[in-house]
Amino acid sequence: MTKADFRNISVVLVNTSHPGNIGASARAMNNMGLTNLVLVRPKEFPSGVAIGRAASAVALLDNARVVDSLTEAVADCGLVIGASARSRRIPWPLLTPAQCAEKALEAGTNRVALVFGREDTGLSNEELRLCHYHVRIPANPGYSSLNLAAAVMVICYELYKTATGVDKEGAGPAEREWDQELATGEDLERFYRHLESVLIAVDFHDPENPRQLMQRIRRLFGRIRIDVMEMSILRGMLSNIEQNLRKRDPMD
Amino acid sequence: MTKADFRNISVVLVNTSHPGNIGASARAMNNMGLTNLVLVRPKEFPSGVAIGRAASAVALLDNARVVDSLTEAVADCGLVIGASARSRRIPWPLLTPAQCAEKALEAGTNRVALVFGREDTGLSNEELRLCHYHVRIPANPGYSSLNLAAAVMVICYELYKTATGVDKEGAGPAEREWDQELATGEDLERFYRHLESVLIAVDFHDPENPRQLMQRIRRLFGRIRIDVMEMSILRGMLSNIEQNLRKRDPMD
Question: Residues 6 or more apart from B202 whose CB is under 8 A from it?
């Protein structure tokens, strides 16, 4: 997995009312590898509540830059993207969170600001005009107002995902580094033959009137991607069933 | 955009300590169109703190099903996916949030449970074994512990995104329904010729020694997707510059 380097990317929170949201945003940032937090005129900061909600991301609060205006916050930025939940009178170039991540990463070493507005009213029209793009998190039209830290979480998550290419590579080691080899097709065929003979032996399966039993069994086991250890367990079960059938056969 | 229908999908929170996380999870669910919340032995519920953090999603708390065990919570589910931050001794089929969304939607009308563990210790190994798949949110290896409601937010967001196909369709109306028609290629060529003649007139541009000026200008304006209104503003500016150049010409 590629290492994510977000040193040039800042999260800017404008006029945040609840310090808990500042702390939770810092935690979300840190979870996704972002480190630069800028606060524009926060209502209450520093704050014990923020520290509590930041959990292990307290360093982000310690290093947060506090400024007086959004203009000041984005003065050194080559790309400014503002979160916007509402439709605006003047349409603005609007990105999905995934497109926002691409734009931010394309910016290379240029400074990038991801701007989030107030809990109740978001960013003002004037603040939105300072942004090159707006980003909107797709949401239930009946209730599209995300908690501030939840919105920061989603945007940072998309950024991390895009930077590390995790969706292309799959979920991680467990998927690729299974602790056992998978059973081969030949193993499976031997298993199906073995199983069929046992099912016949126990009168569960009549080859003269097979219905779709074996197809269904193939469809079932085929979905599992059986590994060699599991296969030897299954084969062992079948063998033991067979042995016990023979023992109990009155003709023996 | 497709309507998301998540009536068969539940979010199951196991043994949640902080009622604020229950409320914030309900809000995140509602934002993404999910309605079924199941609580396994919550430490404190009902709770005023949960109601406060749920904001407009209080109905989800009112309708939450409270049960005694995860087994009971998932008894009627055909697909159970558990959130897991840690690597397990026995690897389990592991999904990314996007893959989790696909699996959940593929389940059709079967009941699906998305299971989230305790704030401090997550799901126990026994609980994780009740899950058909595990889902891991990609995160900074140095600090991968997401807040519970933040994890619910990410998983529900991926679900909504996949169900509505929003990434394929773009960010929404503003991108497609710009308030003005875009300028055509022909408009742009006329503009470049106009601009070039003005730049020559003001001795900024020497066609005998062009360097790469016009290419750079094309690259610049080409990125903007200029609309017809903006184009007429630009052309008007150029015309006015020309008129004023003629007025001040001492040979007139």
Answer: B241, B245
Lowest-pLDDT range of A130-134, A210-214, B13-17, B25-29: A210-214
Q: Which residue has the higher pLDDT, B217 or A34?
A: A34
Question: DSSP letters of B166-218?
Answer: HHHH-S-HHHHS-SSPBPPHHHHHHHHHHHHHHHHHTTS--TTS-TTHHHHHH
**Nearest alpha-carbon partner for A176 in B96, B24, B111, B113:** B96
The answer to whether residue A71 sits within a structural domain is yes
Joined tokens for residue B28: 């995140």
Q: What is the mean pLDDT of chain A?
A: 87
Answer with the one of A104, A134, A169 that is the final residue of a domain: A169
Mutation target for A interface from B60, B140, B176, B178: give the one with most A CBs within 10 A. Answer: B140
Predicted model pTM:
0.79
Domain termination residue (choose one: B122, B153, B173): B173
The Cα–Cα gap between A144 and A147 comes to 10
Alpha-carbon distance of A149 to A18, in angstroms, equals 10
Query: Per-residue pLDDT tens for B138-162?
Result: 999 999 999 999 999 999 999 999 9
Please tell me the total number of residues recorded for chain A in this structure: 252
Residue B46 has pLDDT above 50, yes or no: yes
Contacts of B251 (CB under 8 A, 6+ apart): none
Residue B29 to chain A, least CA–CA distance (Å): 9
Q: List CB contacts (< 8 A) between A143 and chain B.
A: 30-31, 56-57
Strands A36-40 and A9-14: parallel
pLDDT digits (tens, 9 = 90+) for A42-58: 999 999 999 999 999 99
Tell me which residue range forms the domain holding B108: 9-173
Inter-chain touch B139–A32, beta carbons under 8 Å: yes
A119 against A205, higher pLDDT: A119
Contact criterion met (CB below 8 Å) for A175 and A215? no
Tell me how close the Cα of A131 comes to any Cα of chain B, in angstroms: 14
User: Do residues B145 and B37 share a domain?
Assistant: yes
Both tokens assigned to A148: 């501030």
Test A171 with B140 for CB contact under 8 angstroms: no
Write the single-letter amino acid at A11.
Answer: V
Task: Tell me the shortest Cα–Cα distance from B200 to chain A, in angstroms.
Answer: 30
Tokens standing for A201? 């032996």
- Nearest-by-Cβ selection for A136 from B135, B142, B171: B171
The verdict on a CB contact (< 8 Å) between A95 and B166 is: no
**Residue B1 within any structural domain of the chain:** no
End-to-end CA distance of chain A: 61
The tokens for B112 are: 């699906």
